[in-house]
Amino acid sequence: MRLFRPTGADRDDAALLRAVAKGDAEALGVLYDRHAGWLHARLTRRCADPETVREVLQDTFVTVWRSAGTHRGGEAGGWLWVIAGRRLVDARRAQARAERADERGRRDHEPAAVAPSAEERVLAGLEFGDVGAALDRISPELREVLRATVVDGLTTRETARLLGIPEGTVKTRAMRARRELRLELGRIAPLGGTA
């Protein structure tokens, strides 16, 4: 097996992912060095527990190692963020299940008075509510821009760098994404409908 040597045309993420798919651990290391920093920063914005963030980051790259062959083009950064976001949701669900089991196991059945934060409620709505359903109906490239700029709070420049597209394209896609999201929300929950 040839080890990945990041030179010339092989410097792009697609080449790294192809090498990882063939079992090249060095290529995975290069990919990790290139993307782990910003992934860690974005995960930290969504989760205050540093241990969970570290576990999710590790799980993300384990998933990349196992499924690099499934990457079908497009920006690797967006693909990595989708994996990381799903791993974070999975980790939160597992924590919630463990907490519920722990509560059931307590002998003094006092209810916990911990309410979810506003951010957690918004993120749950994005994942499971009408907004999440509407987001799933718009095109992936528009959804990526919307998640990066609105959900993650990245600037246009940061989003452009993350997705590997020009800043003007970010602005155009964000405008289109908002328009399409409004249309989809109108289809899912029309004004005047039942709550």
Summarize the structure.
This protein has 195 residues and is mostly helical.
Index terms:
195 residues, mainly alpha, Rna Polymerase Sigma Factor, Chain: A, Arc Repressor Mutant, subunit A, globular, RNA_pol_sigma-70_dom, sigma factor, RNA_pol_sigma_r3/r4-like, RNA_pol_sigma-70-like, RNA polymerase sigma factor
Molecular structure report:
The protein contains 9 helices and no strands. By secondary structure, the protein is an all-alpha fold. The protein folds into 2 domains: 8-114, RNA polymerase sigma factor, region 2, helix turn helix motif (Rna Polymerase Sigma Factor, Chain: A); 116-187, Arc Repressor Mutant, subunit A, CATH 1.10.10.10. α7 packs across α9. The chain is globular. Residues 6-10 have low confidence and may be disordered.
Tell me the layout of helices and strands.
Elements: H1 13-21, H2 25-46, H3 50-67, H4 76-105, H5 118-128, H6 130-137, H7 140-151, H8 156-163, H9 167-188
Strand content: under 5%
What integer value in Å does the Rg equal?
A: 19 Å
Number of domains: 2
CATH H-level superfamily title of the largest domain: RNA polymerase sigma factor, region 2, helix turn helix motif
* CATH-assigned fold name of the largest domain: Rna Polymerase Sigma Factor, Chain: A
CATH architecture of the largest domain: Orthogonal Bundle
Count of DSSP E strands? 0
pLDDT average, as an integer?
80
What is the rounded distance between the termini?
A: 59 Å
As residue ranges, the low-confidence spans are: 6-10
How many alpha or pi helices? 9
Pfam families: Sigma70_r2, Sigma70_r4_2
Family: Belongs to the sigma-70 factor family. ECF subfamily.
Keywords: Sigma factor, Transcription, Transcription regulation
Domain RNA polymerase sigma-70 region: 31-97
